[in-house]
Amino acid sequence: MLTAGLLMSAPGIAQAVFTSRVVGEVAASTLSLAAPVGADVTASCTSTPRRLSVVVNNFGTVPRATSLELTVTDPTNVVVHTGGAAYTRNGAAKGTWKIQIKGLYTVNATNIWRGLPYERLVECL
Questions:
Q1: Is the separation of the CB atoms in 70 and 82 below 8 Å?
Q2: Burial of 119 (0-12, 13-18, 19+ CB in 10 A)
Q3: Is residue 58 within 8 Å of 97, Cβ to Cβ?
Q4: What are phi and psi of 8, to 5 degrees?
Q5: DSSP annotation string for 14-71
Q6: For the CA atoms of 101, 107, 63, 37, what is the dihedral angle to 10 degrees?
Q7: What integer pLDDT is reported at residue 31 of this predicted model?
Q8: What is the pLDDT of residue 60?
Q9: Quick one: pLDDT at residue 49?
Q10: Above 90 in pLDDT, residue 100?
């Protein structure tokens, strides 16, 4: 009888309450980058043969930007170039091509903030 009483109360002995509380701080911020001021791009599309030519004469300035980026987007809205200050496309597709310059703020390799664009459109006929 004593053994049965001990066995019946054993699960109650093994029960315990564990509590833990962790407090942390989260730092969050926002950054707004303006469109480049003073950007100057020469862009044209010849018809025979059809050739798109884009040259950045001046990227302009963007306060707080750590770098600037040129992108060229084709008439189907596919980015075909990101990077350097010039782009040429022989046999360019007909339609409206979009040229953009944006300021970038790089926090680390996986966290890059992009600003508002300077934008120029070029029509290839």
A1: yes
A2: middle
A3: no
A4: -70, -30
A5: H-------------------PPPBS-EEEEEEEETTEEEEEEEEE--B-TT-SEEEEE
A6: 0
A7: 79
A8: 96
A9: 92
A10: yes
CA distance 117 to 93: 23
Give Cβ neighbours of residue 24 (< 8 Å, ≥ 6 apart). Answer: none
Do residues 68 and 37 touch, judged by C-beta distance below 8 A? no
| Ramachandran category for residue 43: left, alpha or beta (phi over 0 → left; psi -120 to 50 → alpha) | beta
Place of tokens 């022989």: 90
* In CATH, 32-124 is 2.60.40.10: yes
Angle at 71 between CA 77 and CA 67, to 5 degrees: 145
Average pLDDT (92-97) is 97
